[in-house]
Design goal:
Belongs to the zinc-containing alcohol dehydrogenase family. This protein is an alpha/beta fold. It has helices at 42-48, 98-101, 152-155, 161-171, 187-198, 213-219, 230-234, 254-257, 281-284, 298-311, 325-333; strands at 2-8, 17-23, 30-39, 65-72, 84-87, 90-92, 114-115, 135-139, 144-145, 179-183, 202-207, 223-226, 240-245, 260-268, 289-292, 317-321, 340-344. The chain binds NADP nicotinamide-adenine-dinucleotide phosphate and zinc ion (2 copies). One zinc ion is lined by residues 41, 43, 63, 89, 160.
């Protein structure tokens, strides 16, 4: 077994603290990655606070992992020692159901995808531990290639925030001529702005934070709407083809659905603890749609990383020491992060 240093939440609503555990030995198809950086996703916070129910403790969060391969199993074909590598939100799935066969492992229909943390390994049932740790063992099939053209710390958030916004933009073939609204300028939101703009859409940020306007424009947004300002909101009524909703807190969807034009689609990405209420009248009058999307498959995650390398797209980050993780959570809750915290695992000691 491989001794591993980490930070873990011992129980729901208890601060994260240093934690030691053992990773499995490197199997024939596994790679061992020394983790250099790990992004901090709002899903980490939802899960360490058990806001979705069923959390497994102790929990080592983290599913925006980048680092360098330090060992490979005998059968590994696509990675060698010294390669940069990334791991996102899943580390396994059944591999045989129609979703897995289609490269949509996140929608695995038998075992479900195995989360990088707060999941259980298929077979052994052992809990999975994430990227707030010194190293990780992952089957090469669930490991991504990372370009050395981009700044590594700023690549980490692409593994969740990047793919979660890239996948729906591709699924709905967003491009020139489309008006896209991005609700919430946080980790997911700022990646949605960069990616949708790179794909040629007109992008509007719909934010509760007036002080984010200059940043939004810098990130590539064409317009900025303060959603608490009724007049500003009215100026974009019946306007959008698509709205990517990345908001992490409960909110009244009606006002936002009215921003969709006829046949417009709101794609739910954020997962607030409580379910939203929707009145049929907000949909039927303009044949509007509400959809949802969960991260992206492994092949599409690789496509997104390659797209970002080609277009020089990375995350805007605040690099933190792992000892500051609890404070970072408090700041993220207030929407006070520009625009993703990334943990420097060298600070794990
Ligand atoms: P984040 O960085 O905290 O960003 C969320 C943003 O939502 C905030 O910056 C804020 O933007 C806005 N917001 C927060 N509270 C609000 C409120 N009460 N009313 C209106 N707006 C509010 O979080 P994130 O990491 O981007 O994650 C966002 C959500 O997506 C989380 O629920 C997370 O679990 C979920 N998620 C889903 C997937 C998926 O596969 N579908 C993947 C990853 C994450 P403004 O200041 O601009 O208003
Ligand atoms: Zn995430
Ligand atoms: Zn499957």
């Amino acid at each position: 077994m491989l001794p591993t240093k980490a930070y873990a939440a011992p129980a729901a609503n208890v601060p994260l603290a240093p934690f030691n555990f053992e990773r499995r030995e490197v199997g024939p198809h596994d790679v061992l990655i020394d983790i250099h950086f790990c992004g901090v996703c709002h899903s980490d916070l939802h899960q360490v606070r058990d806001e979705w129910g069923g959390s497994i403790f102790p929990m080592v969060p983290g599913h925006e992992i980048v680092g360098r391969v330090s060992s490979v199993g005998a059968q590994v074909q696509n990675f060698k020692v010294g390669d940069l590598a990334g791991v996102g939100c899943m580390v396994d799935s059944c591999r045989t159901c129609s979703s897995c066969q289609d490269g949509l492992e996140q929608y695995c229909e038998t075992t479900g995808m195995v989360g990088t943390y707060n999941g259980r390994e298929i077979g052994s049932g052992a809990p999975t531990y994430g990227g707030y740790s010194s190293r990780i063992v992952v089957d090469e099939k669930y490991t991504l290639k990372v370009s050395d053209k981009l700044e590594l710390a700023r690549v980490a958030p692409l593994l969740c925030a990047g793919i979660t916004t890239y996948s729906p933009l591709r699924q709905w073939q967003v491009g020139p001529g489309h008006r896209v609204g991005v609700m919430g300028l946080g980790g997911l939101g700022h990646m949605a702005v960069k990616l949708a703009a790179a794909m040629g859409a007109e992008v509007t940020v719909l934010s509760t934070s007036p002080n984010k306007e200059a940043d939004a424009k810098e990130l590539g947004a064409h317009k900025f709407v303060v959603t608490k300002d009724k007049e500003q909101l009215k100026s974009v009524s019946n306007y959008f083809d698509f709205i990517l909703n990345t908001v992490s807190a409960p909110l009244d969807l009606a006002a936002y659905l009215n921003l969709l034009r006829r046949d417009g689609t709101m794609i739910l990405l954020g997962v607030p603890p409580e379910a939203p209420q929707v009145h049929a009248f907000n949909l039927i009058g303009k044949r509007r749609r509400i959809a949802g999307s969960l991260i992206g498959g492994i092949a599409e995650t690789q496509e997104m990383l390659d797209f970002c390398a080609e277009h020089n797209i990375v995350s805007d980050i605040e690099l933190i020491n792992i000892a500051d993780i609890n404070e970072a959570y408090e700041r993220m809750l207030k929407g006070d992060v520009k625009y993703r915290f990334v943990i420097d695992l060298a600070t794990l000691g």
